[in-house]
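Archive entry. Fields below.
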Amino acid sequence: MISLRASDHIPQLSIDCVIFGFSQNQLKVLSPKLIFKGDFWSLPGGFVRQDESIDQAARRILEERTGIKDIYLEQFRVFGETDRSNLSFWDRLTELNGEAFVAEHFNRKELEWITKRFVSIGYYALVDITKVIPVKMEADASVEWYDIQNLPPMIMDHNQIVAAALVSLQQNLDQKLIAFNLLPETFTMNEVQQIYEVVLNKTLLRSNFQKKILDLNVLERLEKKFTGKANKAPYLYRWAQ
Amino acid sequence: MISLRASDHIPQLSIDCVIFGFSQNQLKVLSPKLIFKGDFWSLPGGFVRQDESIDQAARRILEERTGIKDIYLEQFRVFGETDRSNLSFWDRLTELNGEAFVAEHFNRKELEWITKRFVSIGYYALVDITKVIPVKMEADASVEWYDIQNLPPMIMDHNQIVAAALVSLQQNLDQKLIAFNLLPETFTMNEVQQIYEVVLNKTLLRSNFQKKILDLNVLERLEKKFTGKANKAPYLYRWAQ
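PREDICTED_STRUCTURE:
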């Protein structure tokens, strides 16, 4: 039996989290796949307890999923169309898995609660992917990172939510100096540039980019990275503020 | 008796609208004052019907208040702290007006519905102030425009909502060319510059500003404005897209 603890939460309001990570020169998104038959991928999400703020709810959901506290988090938009198709998602799940299977996993009152229309608040998070150990919740068969260019088809409007989160990330990238949240504690200037190029989906001139970033005076230069070839080794940097 | 029609709406979810207008070189915000004793100013707001999207709800609320359709509208943030103090607002209202007065205006079941915690979606709208005839709803004593620098103290977190809307408007002003929504159909270049200066709260160089705006190729130049002095009369422009 999967417990939704419906009575503790604000009804018809959910939170969906787009968790961005960066590795192998790709922007990645974390997506759990449900245990039910039918290939249901989704965004990590949850509900808002009556006694917590919406930001606290988003942090709790992210911590449950990634094991990390103090994640960089932005609320970016609310998804409130009437045809977000929560009901048709549940109809399809029931069709593919059988009513008995669904009845075995959810109590009837909670099922009534969760099949209503939901308005969902979208948050995106930026994480150092090397620090995350994705956590499966009780309804998950798997939780994996997917290239943003190659996401599986997700339930409801979750693919649209990812697309909107990416637009918001692109708009915020310069304004708020948030890209560094996708990097480990120390990094090379090349790694910073790769993130900008992949997120903005364009090539940047190396010299201009490096000058712009260094002129911001937010990085501390450390020793050279050990590569075996002292001459060509790039410097390591660290966020200094 | 004030009807909230609670049963038609999503519970614990509201919409608050910051309606911006521009006149006498001031950015203005529309604020209704409630009929109850205690000087309760607020933002125009409402709830989301089960059968309408959140954007439709915001448009409906704005149309009810201003009489205008096709208003420029941006969803900018959700306000979801647990201490938004809906209950303490109702406590204070009851204290100042008496329980009998409140009981006379609200039915008990709806009062129970509306005194719960609400999560509120903030929208801001930009209007041509000359086209708006503010509409009083049944709980309003007045609906007036106030200078944003000189707003009355509002209920709950409504003053914070205005402050957040202004920050969002400032960020979007260049990116999205939205300032023209605050102007009547034809305007002088000086009027455009005034809006930018007031919203961004800084003085702009006239020649640079005019060049930047004209280079955008979004305006059509019309005849000169009639001022009685043909020589110094400024050109009128119109949004051309």
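CURATOR_NOTE: Residues 189 and 210 of chain B are 7 Å apart (CA to CA).
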